[in-house]
């Protein structure tokens, strides 16, 4: 039953200038059920210094002012209350002025300078005084302001108010612009010395200036801000009248404005819940809640009366008898390779009809494969699946994992959802030249005899692309040649043919630069340099190659290695052609089933309404379709089988990668070679 302080208490923040400052509370005691009210009074400590509105003040006082004249000074403010608030002012020693400290109705202090000895401008043109404000703390805190007094010649007559104190009352919530009081002063002087300007006194608090407006010409005091009886019941406003003389005369008065309460606060109902939730087997008459009502207005029964309605939600205790249920049993997600790490790719959604902790779901990634936890991560609270690393289609095409959805009941219930992530290809690999090898110092020279007719295949550029499908479809163009009219290259085969019949007077050496480009976006390219010799005898070519070889070539037995390489290439070519025939037969049978069905068998894809696509915006093509691409050269065909899609249940919440379809691409490149002669 101990009442403890849970955080630091600042009395000035809680109650401001209100004293005493108290906080009320209620205590509920059960068995038997009783309600007690209490209050804690927050006592003030001297933790705030008095503060003046400005560090300097300037006064202009005529030398003709008689002894006894009073001059109000700016008041200091101290948010503390009681003895710790502002208690007195002190003035530095001087021969002309003394300080008179006055007390307002609310107990606050303000100071006025009283002229004790008349001023003489010819003797002293200005005075410098220091006003000190002190509170009643122990030790006391203080603040200082510099007072600069200019002694000038001024009017003979100062304005005079027709009364020193005005009283008025105004209802709270009065509209702005409402007239409260009209003050009036007169000045016996003529001309500008008799024209009067009304204004707030210098020690009028800023809060008062925000709530009230004074017409400087007519002296009408009007409502400017929103008055609130519950905040302040009485305002003490200090005003002054000043003429327009060179040394203006000043008169002062005060206006007491009483704020009248109106019924502008509805009752506030506080509900202290005891049995919530209520067990479903609770007996009739069981106490559900305790009610307390407060109203910030004064008295009761306002006119018109205000009322309050409080709804009480009675909850029934729940048991954990429902396992989480996912919208789908499995998800297929398609992600473009080279993704940015940390992107969301899927949101696994599930529901639980239970209440409270029994319906609080958490999502966990079951790491059947050790690498899954390093590549994927799931948000335990909302089921969002994130990619932690950048994926590579050439490294791995598919990832399979299991997501467990578990509620917070005791004991908890769980459901498992399977997720398959397919990595779709991007054109991120340029073609790679296999022959002629670009990173070797050896010179590969193909030989063609003079008189060779047009259309004869001389050699072939062999290249591969690590990408898949259309991104790996390579085209070959002749970029540079010793004689561009002599040779041509197959667009899709890389085979180099004679464009015309070779003459006897052809240059003996020809260098061709072949540009290889894939069909991705953006297009990536590479180049290959091919050397061709025009000669009747192999010996001549071999002599030419010996001439252009480095003088100190450390490699020996070149002929043996060349013969071995040709044999290996020929064997590989034979195996490749045999595999190609078997593969073509298999693909022919498979293509019949592929084009007769509505979905691809190359990837596992669930049927309609059990498939999700984590690509752009969660929007997918509305139907299934297939596309077949065929090459136009080299007697080869590239088969592109695009997968079917179904609608995505993720909607706009699905983070997207790109609207694209996964596909499986195959490109078979045939190679041609010639057998070496014994001399080679």
UniProtKB/TrEMBL annotation:
<dbReference type="InterPro" id="IPR020894">
    <property type="entry name" value="Cadherin_CS"/>
</dbReference>
<dbReference type="InterPro" id="IPR002126">
    <property type="entry name" value="Cadherin-like_dom"/>
</dbReference>
<feature type="domain" description="Cadherin">
    <location>
        <begin position="440"/>
        <end position="552"/>
    </location>
</feature>
<keyword id="KW-0106">Calcium</keyword>
<keyword id="KW-0732">Signal</keyword>
<keyword id="KW-0325">Glycoprotein</keyword>
<dbReference type="InterPro" id="IPR015919">
    <property type="entry name" value="Cadherin-like_sf"/>
</dbReference>
<keyword id="KW-0130">Cell adhesion</keyword>
<dbReference type="Pfam" id="PF00028">
    <property type="entry name" value="Cadherin"/>
</dbReference>
<dbReference type="InterPro" id="IPR013164">
    <property type="entry name" value="Cadherin_N"/>
</dbReference>
<dbReference type="InterPro" id="IPR050174">
    <property type="entry name" value="Protocadherin/Cadherin-CA"/>
</dbReference>
<dbReference type="GO" id="GO:0005886">
    <property type="term" value="C:plasma membrane"/>
</dbReference>
<keyword id="KW-1003">Cell membrane</keyword>
<keyword id="KW-0812">Transmembrane</keyword>
<dbReference type="GO" id="GO:0007156">
    <property type="term" value="P:homophilic cell adhesion via plasma membrane adhesion molecules"/>
</dbReference>
<feature type="domain" description="Cadherin">
    <location>
        <begin position="162"/>
        <end position="269"/>
    </location>
</feature>
<feature type="transmembrane region" description="Helical">
    <location>
        <begin position="560"/>
        <end position="583"/>
    </location>
</feature>
<feature type="domain" description="Cadherin">
    <location>
        <begin position="300"/>
        <end position="326"/>
    </location>
</feature>
<dbReference type="GO" id="GO:0005509">
    <property type="term" value="F:calcium ion binding"/>
</dbReference>
<keyword id="KW-0472">Membrane</keyword>
<feature type="domain" description="Cadherin">
    <location>
        <begin position="327"/>
        <end position="433"/>
    </location>
</feature>
<protein>
    <submittedName>
        <fullName>PCDGK protein</fullName>
    </submittedName>
</protein>
<feature type="domain" description="Cadherin">
    <location>
        <begin position="53"/>
        <end position="161"/>
    </location>
</feature>
<dbReference type="Pfam" id="PF08266">
    <property type="entry name" value="Cadherin_2"/>
</dbReference>
<keyword id="KW-1133">Transmembrane helix</keyword>
<keyword id="KW-0677">Repeat</keyword>
<dbReference type="Pfam" id="PF16492">
    <property type="entry name" value="Cadherin_C_2"/>
</dbReference>
<dbReference type="InterPro" id="IPR032455">
    <property type="entry name" value="Cadherin_C"/>
</dbReference>
């Amino acid at each position: 039953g101990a009442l403890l302080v849970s955080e630091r208490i600042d009395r000035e923040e809680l109650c401001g200038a209100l004293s005493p400052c108290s906080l009320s509370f209620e205590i509920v005691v059960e068995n038997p059920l009783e309600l007690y009210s209490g209050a804690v009074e927050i006592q003030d400590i001297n933790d705030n210094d008095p503060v003046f509105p400005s560090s300097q003040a300037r006064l202009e006082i005529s030398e003709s002012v008689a002894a006894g004249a009073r001059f109000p000074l700016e008041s200091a403010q101290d948010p503390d209350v009681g003895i710790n608030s502002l208690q007195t002012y002190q003035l530095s020693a001087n021969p002309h002025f003394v300080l008179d400290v006055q007390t307002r109705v609310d107990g606050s202090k303000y100071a006025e300078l009283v002229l004790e000895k008349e001023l003489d401008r010819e003797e002293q043109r200005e005075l410098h005084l220091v006003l000190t404000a002190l509170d009643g703390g122990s030790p006391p805190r203080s603040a200082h302001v510099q007072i600069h007094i200019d002694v000038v010649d001024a009017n003979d007559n100062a304005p005079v108010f027709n009364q020193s104190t005005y009283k008025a009352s105004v209802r709270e919530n009065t509209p702005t612009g409402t007239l409260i009081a009209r003050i009036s002063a007169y000045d016996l002087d003529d001309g500008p010395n008799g024209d009067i300007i009304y204004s707030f006194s210098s020690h009028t608090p800023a809060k008062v200036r925000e709530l009230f407006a004074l017409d400087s010409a007519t002296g009408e005091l009007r409502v400017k801000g929103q008055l609130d009886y519950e905040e302040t019941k009485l305002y003490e406003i200090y005003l002054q009248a000043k003429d327009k003389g060179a040394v203006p005369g000043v008169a002062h008065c005060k206006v007491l404005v009483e704020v009248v309460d109106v019924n502008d606060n509805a009752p506030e109902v506080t509900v202290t819940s005891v049995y919530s939730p209520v067990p479903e087997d609770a007996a009739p008459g069981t106490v559900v809640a305790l009610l307390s009502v407060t109203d910030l207005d004064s008295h009761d029964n306002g006119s018109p009366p205000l009322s309050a309605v409080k709804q009480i939600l009675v909850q029934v205790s729940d048991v954990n008898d429902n396992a989480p249920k996912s919208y789908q049993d499995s998800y297929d997600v398609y992600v473009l390779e080279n993704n940015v790490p940390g992107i969301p790719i899927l949101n696994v959604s599930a529901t639980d009809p239970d209440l409270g902790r029994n319906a609080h779901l958490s999502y966990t990634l079951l790491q059947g494969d050790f690498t899954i936890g390093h590549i994927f991560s799931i948000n335990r609270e909302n089921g969002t699946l994130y990619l932690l690393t950048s994926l590579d289609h050439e490294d791995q095409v598919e990832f399979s994992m299991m997501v467990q959805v578990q509620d917070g009941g005791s004991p908890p219930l769980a459901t498992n959802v399977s997720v398959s992530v397919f990595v779709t290809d991007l054109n991120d690999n340029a073609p790679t030249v296999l022959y002629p090898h670009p990173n070797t110092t050896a010179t590969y020279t193909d030989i063609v005899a003079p008189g060779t007719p047009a259309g004869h295949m001389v050699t072939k550029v062999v290249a591969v692309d690590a990408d898949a499908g259309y991104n790996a479809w390579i085209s070959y163009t002749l970029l540079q040649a010793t004689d561009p009219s002599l040779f041509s290259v197959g667009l899709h085969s890389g085979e180099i043919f004679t464009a015309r019949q070779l003459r006897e007077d052809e240059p003996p050496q020809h260098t061709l630069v072949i540009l290889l480009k894939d069909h991705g976006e953006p297009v990536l390219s590479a180049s290959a340099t091919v050397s061709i010799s025009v000669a009747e005898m192999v010996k001549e070519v071999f002599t030419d190659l010996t001439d252009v070889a480095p003088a100190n070539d450390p490699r020996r037995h070149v002929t043996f290695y060349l013969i071995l390489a040709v044999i290996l290439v020929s064997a590989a070519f034979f195996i490749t052609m045999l595999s190609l025939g078997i593969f073509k037969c298999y693909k022919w049978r498979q293509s019949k089933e592929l084009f007769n069905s509505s979905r691809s068998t190359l990837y596992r894809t669930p049927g309609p309404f059990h498939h999700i696509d984590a690509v752009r915006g969660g929007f997918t093509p509305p139907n299934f379709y297939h596309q077949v691409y065929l090459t136009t050269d080299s007697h080869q065909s590239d088969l592109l089988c695009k997968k079917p899609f179904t609608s995505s249940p993720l909607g706009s919440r699905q983070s997207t990668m790109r609207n694209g379809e996964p596909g499986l691409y195959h490109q078979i490149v045939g190679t041609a070679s010639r057998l070496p002669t014994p001399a080679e």
